[in-house]
Specification:
Protein name: Zinc-dependent metalloprotease
GO molecular function, one term: metallopeptidase activity
Structural class: alpha/beta
Helix content: 55-70%
Largest sheet: 4 strands, mixed
Number of strands: 4
Strand content: 5-15%
Keywords: Hydrolase, Metalloprotease, Protease
InterPro entries: Zinicin_2 (IPR018766)
Shape: globular
Radius of gyration: 19 Å
Organism: Streptomyces endocoffeicus
């Protein structure tokens, strides 16, 4: 039995905490049934102030890096990579927290948790779109299932290059495509098929900052390259979704779940485009 633990650490978001608790309660058993994955003992979501969200995100990064370096001494190149990762992470959490719905990371005990700054949900518009909030909460909860099933073999997403044992693998396609597949499966069972996501009502600050970012990016990059970068995550998610659908249809969900146990089983980008290549390589 999975325990639902939604913590309102702001002491001002009781209604949102109750909403998320209800969403997780409604879907936890369905996710286990659909994925055939062992559920996490606790589904933990933390509602935090922006400062606390940034601090916990940085603490996670530092724990991961320190843990990796404790196992084997880093090379000078790896130390430089870690410094760069920390600088970029710090800048991102400080400057664009209000453009981020949330993130699923490990706590200090190595257990999955989803961090949300409710003020960010105001800026992104998710706070006022109940259907899309439902999809987001479910999507992030699936990442907790993935982490639990993986036991460190595949998830969480690696931070340093030394943790990528199979560099040609399309891990992000798998992670995002699988989560989206589960969201669609759950939504179909609860609400019926064919629901189209509604456009989000972004805050004025979000819209203004997005326009500034786009203007600055165009100063240093070709407009076509900027558009491609903006569409990349959507392509990764949609391509990954199609791949997961094809694999589950071809071999069933239980054999598919073994993909979380070994990086060798992860698809390459070529195999994302041609699932038969993956079937042949892994022996299905």
């Amino acid at each position: 039995m999975t325990v639902i633990d939604v913590l309102d650490e702001t002491a001002r978001e009781h209604h949102l905490a109750a909403q998320i608790t209800g969403m997780l309660t409604d879907t936890a058993e369905l996710v286990s049934d659909i994925t055939a994955l062992t559920p996490p003992p606790v589904l933990r979501f933390r509602l935090m102030s922006p400062a606390a969200w940034s601090a916990e995100s940085m603490a996670y990064l530092r724990r991961e890096i320190e843990g990796r370096f404790a196992k084997s001494a880093p090379s000078p190149e790896e130390e430089a990579e870690a410094r760069t990762a920390e600088r970029l992470y710090r800048t991102g959490t400080a400057d664009i927290w209000w453009m981020t719905h949330g993130s699923t990371v490990l706590d200090s005990a190595g257990r999955p948790q989803t961090l949300i700054a409710p003020k960010a949900l105001h800026h992104t518009g998710l706070r006022y779109a109940s259907n899309e909030l439902y999809r987001f909460v479910l999507h992030e909860s699936v990442h907790q299932w993935q982490i639990t099933a993986s036991r460190g073999a595949v998830m969480p997403l690696p931070i340093l290059k030394r943790d990528i044992r199979q560099p040609d693998r399309a891990l992000m396609h798998l992670v995002e495509g699988h989560a989206e597949w589960v969201v669609q499966q759950v939504a179909g069972r609860l609400f019926g098929p064919g629901r189209t996501p509604a456009p989000l009502r972004r805050s004025w600050r979000y819209r203004k900052q997005t326009a500034v970012i786009q203007w600055l990016a165009r100063r240093v990059a070709q407009p076509a390259a900027l558009e491609q970068a903006g569409d990349r995550m959507e392509r990764i998610r949609s391509d990954g979704l199609r791949w997961v659908e094809s694999v589950v249809e071809g071999i069933g969900v239980i054999p598919f779940s073994k993909v979380w146990e070994d990086q060798w089983c992860l698809p390459t980008e070529d195999e994302i485009a041609d699932v038969e290549q993956w079937f042949h390589r892994v022996g299905f």
